[in-house]
Amino acid sequence: MKNLTIFSFRLIVLILLFVLLSGSSCEDDPISSPTEHFEAVGIIIYSSGVKVFDYFGPDYDPTASAIDDTIKIQTGLTPRWEAKFYDENRIEIESPVDPDNSFGAQIDNANLLNIQWNAGEEGSFSFYLNGLMPGSTKIKFQILHGDHPDFETLPVVVTIN
Amino acid sequence: MRRFNSFKILLIIVWVIIASSFRVNAAAVLSIKGIVVDVETNLPVSEANLTLIDYKRSAVSNKNGEFVISDVGMGEYVLKVTHVGYKENTLNISVSGQEGKSLVVYLIPKIIEISPVVVTDFHTHTKFDDLSELSNVLKGKELQKELGITLAATLKNETGLAIRSMGPAPARPVIRGLGGDRVLISEDGEKTTDLSSTSPDHAVTIEPFSAERIEVMRGPKVLLYTPTTIGGVVNVIRHEIPQEYHNSMSGSIGAYGETANMGYLGSLVAEAPIDKFMLKVDASKRLTKNLDTPAGRLNNSSSENLSYSGGVSYFPSFGMVGASYKLFDLEYGVPGGFVGAHPFGVDIQMIRRQLNVETRINIRSQLFDDAEVSLYRSYYRHKEFEYGGLIGSEYELENYFGKIHLNHKKIGLFDRGVWGASFEHRRYNIGGYVFSPPAKSINFSVFDFETFTSGKFSLEMGGRYSFDKIVPDYEKPNAKIGYIRERTFHTYSLSLSLLYEWTKIVYVGANISKSSRVPTIEELYSEGPHLAAYSYEVGNPDLNAEGGFGSEIFIFHKFENLYYNFNFFANTLSNYIIPRNSGEYNFQTLLPIYKTTGTDALFYGAEGQIDWGFYKKFSLGFSISYTVGEFSRSGKPLPQIPPLKGLIELKYSDDTFSAGVNSEFAGKQSRVDEFETPTSGYAIINAFTQYSFQTAKLIHVLSLNVDNIFNREYRNHLSRVKSILPEAGINLRLTYKMFFDFQLPQ
User: Fold this and answer.
1) B147-743, what's its fold?
2) Nearest 5 degrees, angle CA B526-CA B532-CA B537?
3) How far apart are the CA of A96 and the nearest CA of chain B, in angstroms?
4) Do the beta carbons of residue B684 and residue B707 sit within 8 Å?
5) pLDDT > 50? residue A2
6) What is the mean pLDDT of residues A111-132?
7) How far apart are CA B227 and CA B267, in angstroms?
8) CATH of domain B4-115
9) B120-151 b/e with 16+ CB inside 10 Å = b?
10) Residue in chain B lying closest to A144 (CA)
11) What is the pLDDT of residue B98?
12) pLDDT, averaged across chain A
């Protein structure tokens, strides 16, 4: 019985020690809640209310290196363009308002073309394309979530005259 | 993995002379007395550790070589004798009520062969265990030679195993074409809590460097751990909770380096008694940089890992009680740059903390030997970071697990067996850019494992019943993937293996099993992009449990310089659950959609292994494995099936030195699923050498491997990044371990 008491005491100390150690784990780092994502599958670009480009993902082979539709611009800044988005039923949806979301573009040849915004509006859905010199390159329009696109188009050929 | 010579040496170790008696006390509790003697000098050996393996009672010989293991009952025991300067010995002894007997144990000095010090204290019991020990266990020097950056890389040359990977760090073993949680990965018999089975970008939270042994279990015994008999268990043994008391401070210090990723590791394992407690600490730190391949550097493939644990145990008269605490912290990169991937890849941080409590109660009744009870609480956290540092997805697991094993003696026909039950509660939480609902799961299982020997026949059989309940935090009747709701499952599994001693050196056997597996939370409820896996995952809340029927025949032979075994297997699975590339794309993310489906599948194939000591200390090893996996109805190939693969090895080996060359080879895999790409075959040449030596009370083992000597470009069919870069180019691996065992004053 005496042995049992000594043993029990040691066992309790032992268990307490390990419970304390266990309690020091990082469970106080709360998990972030699942982020909403923007469920667009298509984009329409307007210039002063006139459609200049239309892309609907399901219309294209997603493994294609580029789509056939071409955007044609002149050197210099285009008029201010505005991007709008639509869902899988081709119904227009509100542009995302989450500050982690931004509008952007990946351009193959930055010597030919870049994208610009009015000061203070970087990443907004109203933008300009800037043709730097005549030529042809590809552009992918994206809605970025961090560095990850919630939505992106296939590469689109842009011809600068 | 096993060489016959080593086995033979273990079998012929020491000579036992019986004299004298066991003293019987009034309560019929006996003791085992004896003396340990050097076989060459006949001088007594002090500080030898003597342990009754099944009962964990132990003693240390005094300066006259004498020992007493007290408080034992009548019966049959297995006594293990170890000493830093001598070869380990195990012997069967019988304790009766007769007085006047004592043991004389002769030990062979280790200078003859060092290897026993670096093998572990496992003792085989049955012919099945012998077979498993020969073909399915990696330990000692062989383990050191094979050590790689991950558990899967360490096991890559085991017969029947392949590696599923997504860069160097996230890699997991695949057995006979079956991966995911059909292969249970455990540490000291306890299932590891991580998400490595759910996605190829998730790493296994085990550092293999300090493992004492790694065993691949198949057959009825796996039912003690999992209902999935088709597949298997990879159990890493490190004894974080000390299992024996010994009056010495022992352990190892290790270091590892390799050139393909400029990686290095430092490791310490130490075990020592304090008062009546036995303490153990185990720590390692590993760093690797980006992997160099013959076609260039694999960007974002570096990793950093810290792993440590502390364990303590106490040995009261009833048995043992102990606890351990473990932390595993890993950061690694998942490469990008292929179709659908992030251009720069994704970074993953994961951490696992685990608290284990374990006790063994010696029952010593007519029916039971002992009871083993273990409990653990495990916390796992995992974050996937986008290139800009934002968290893309996040997972959290909290696991409570408990089990009891009642080890019984002979009952009716059965020689030995285990009755058991287990309980698990898992909380699964998800955050970030993932859309699966948080969920809880509960599992309750009862199981039985029995062994039976009669004449030339040996039999193992097992059964397991499981109840599973999976409860999402909220129901979602109108989810795109279906009705997300609570699911319950009642499943059972059975397995039976029969072995026949055809001759004294040739055994034939067969196994049949009924397997079951419950779908995971991800398989049921996933919906959305998986950042690091570069896929858009769609679960199926209507999935039923996976079932299967497995059959296998095998033959093995062991005699002097020749060992071989061949296995032929066929497994049919109903409702085989796989995430399958649907050929569709999510047009928001342009990610390929992987839909989880249940389908009927057939796996069949063969494995073979030969070790032939053809001339003095030279041996030739050969292993090969081939699996065919196909959809039962259409006969079309299943995805992610490894190609024919094998190893051929020429080796020189003496007691302290070994060297050799080998060739790993794989055939072309052109039997691929729709939307899966074929992979070319390859053969690469490797070389290795290993040297062991002793200084004072230290044993040193040094291994040098040169992998892929000719810098050949080759690709692993099961690698998700094979489309961008091949496997590692030429790689020098240097491994050093120093073992110590300092006797302490009594």
Assistant:
1) Maltoporin; Chain A (2.40.170)
2) 25
3) 13
4) yes
5) no
6) 86
7) 35
8) 2.60.40.1120
9) bbbbbebbbbbbbbbbbbbbbbbbbbbbbbbb
10) B589
11) 53
12) 80
